Amino acid sequence: MGYDIDRFVGYVNEGLLCSICRDVLEDPLQAPCEHAFCTACIHGWLVHHSNCPEDRQMIDVSLLRPLYRYMRNDLNRLQLHCKNREYGCEMVCSLESLDRHERECEYNQIPCSNAGCTVQVERRNLDGHLAVCEYRSRECPNGCGYIILSAEDTQHNCVAELRTELELLRSEMICRVEEAKHEMESRLDSQRRHMVQKESVLQNEIEELKSQMSRLMSDVRSLMAAERQHRQELEQAELEKREL
């Protein structure tokens, strides 16, 4: 759908009207036959038809093109009233700058930012509404530190709220202690397994050293026996030498 022609100030060229809704073009597209349409209008038309609604020439979505530049310029220069005119906005601006103005318009109807509130107010009145909104939140005036909604004032009980919070904190503390306990036990088990593995490795190394020592002692005894044999042979040779 296009822009309501009654919003515009002054004359609007016929060529800037949608051939389907007959309002001023919004997000326009042009067919090869040069008839222009709002994007939403022509897409909706082509769901059930395959021709131009003006001259019945065959068209397809793939043949639609943006509006000629000079026509876009003429369209953007048109002056029109803000959509919030009925609420009191007197702004008249070009179509090109309309979106920017309407996003920031003080007369825009916007929802209350408080959770649970369904009221919509003008942007300029939002602060006043928030000050009295029954869904506004504030800190308990009795000093418990609890954030309450105005609608819950009569149900709020500082002692009950603090007791509930204390129970939650106790439960959270118990959970954290249990988690820390499990983590510590896991670490101890891991260290214990590591120590057992280390002990096994050291025991194997000790056995290997004992085996090497045993072989070394055997070699030493063999060398000592060979040395005694060699000494005896020398003494025998010396005796034989003296006899000669």
TrEMBL record:
<feature type="domain" description="TRAF-type">
    <location>
        <begin position="101"/>
        <end position="144"/>
    </location>
</feature>
<keyword id="KW-0863">Zinc-finger</keyword>
<dbReference type="GO" id="GO:0008270">
    <property type="term" value="F:zinc ion binding"/>
</dbReference>
<dbReference type="Pfam" id="PF13923">
    <property type="entry name" value="zf-C3HC4_2"/>
</dbReference>
<dbReference type="GO" id="GO:0016874">
    <property type="term" value="F:ligase activity"/>
</dbReference>
<dbReference type="InterPro" id="IPR013083">
    <property type="entry name" value="Znf_RING/FYVE/PHD"/>
</dbReference>
<keyword id="KW-0862">Zinc</keyword>
<dbReference type="InterPro" id="IPR001841">
    <property type="entry name" value="Znf_RING"/>
</dbReference>
<dbReference type="InterPro" id="IPR017907">
    <property type="entry name" value="Znf_RING_CS"/>
</dbReference>
<keyword id="KW-0175">Coiled coil</keyword>
<keyword id="KW-0479">Metal-binding</keyword>
<protein>
    <submittedName>
        <fullName>RNF41 ligase</fullName>
    </submittedName>
</protein>
<feature type="zinc finger region" description="TRAF-type">
    <location>
        <begin position="101"/>
        <end position="144"/>
    </location>
</feature>
<feature type="coiled-coil region">
    <location>
        <begin position="192"/>
        <end position="243"/>
    </location>
</feature>
<feature type="domain" description="RING-type">
    <location>
        <begin position="18"/>
        <end position="56"/>
    </location>
</feature>
<keyword id="KW-0436">Ligase</keyword>
<dbReference type="InterPro" id="IPR001293">
    <property type="entry name" value="Znf_TRAF"/>
</dbReference>
<dbReference type="GO" id="GO:0043122">
    <property type="term" value="P:regulation of canonical NF-kappaB signal transduction"/>
</dbReference>
<dbReference type="Pfam" id="PF02176">
    <property type="entry name" value="zf-TRAF"/>
</dbReference>
